[in-house]
Amino acid sequence: MDATAYLARIGGAADDSLEALMARHLETVPFENLSVHQRDHVPLEDPALVEKIVDRRRGGFCYELNGAFAWLLGELGWEVTRCSARVATGDGFSFPGDHMALIVRRDGRQILVDVGFGRFAVGPLDLDSGEEQPDRAGVFTVRGAPDGELDVLWDGKAQYRLDPRERSLADFVPLAWWHRTSPTSPFGQGLLASRLTPTSRVTLSGSQFIETPDDGERTERELSVDEQLATYRETFGIALDAVPPVLHPAD
Question: For this UniProt entry, which residues form the secretion signal (predicted)?
């Protein structure tokens, strides 16, 4: 495992700021669930995660992306904590461990870093601040919640409830297995690849190519199978021989 190779993968440098490393990761490593549909179950272990992202030049979902990024930040000297989060559902929050996020200690403060939530904050968020925090994606705020947890809000809407206590990668193994195999997991319902660009977010959801500019209107376009394969390759850096069949297609 080589931090230099990981930095080359994202176009970063060892002395880059946390903000720069996070932005480069979001722009180069896609949030994607193709491995779920390919039945490629990557172990939640540092070597396997780094090998997938660096050597195989793939992306992943939260446990994989934040798991690998935590390893890189640790190699670069940052103090990193892996944490459990419950995703907002509209009428409450999902189960513990439904999401994994990272807390980095910087200048005595707790900083939220998340490169595995898809469309979300582009920069780090100060968990010790109750003030509004402007970000390229919008305005984020952190609010106290019961039992020492923290609610992270985006433009006033809750995104997830964070438990700041430290977890290990092994703690998330059952949840990762559930997300990869359960018919009710959202990751098994359709194919998804998404990443940030310097001016927008681009997403391939099934056969729909979606572009959401920072300033401008969202556009959608239906792609043929050949166009999907070309988009995976050229936009997300994922070379496929064929579009994987959906693991749990909707009835």
Answer: none
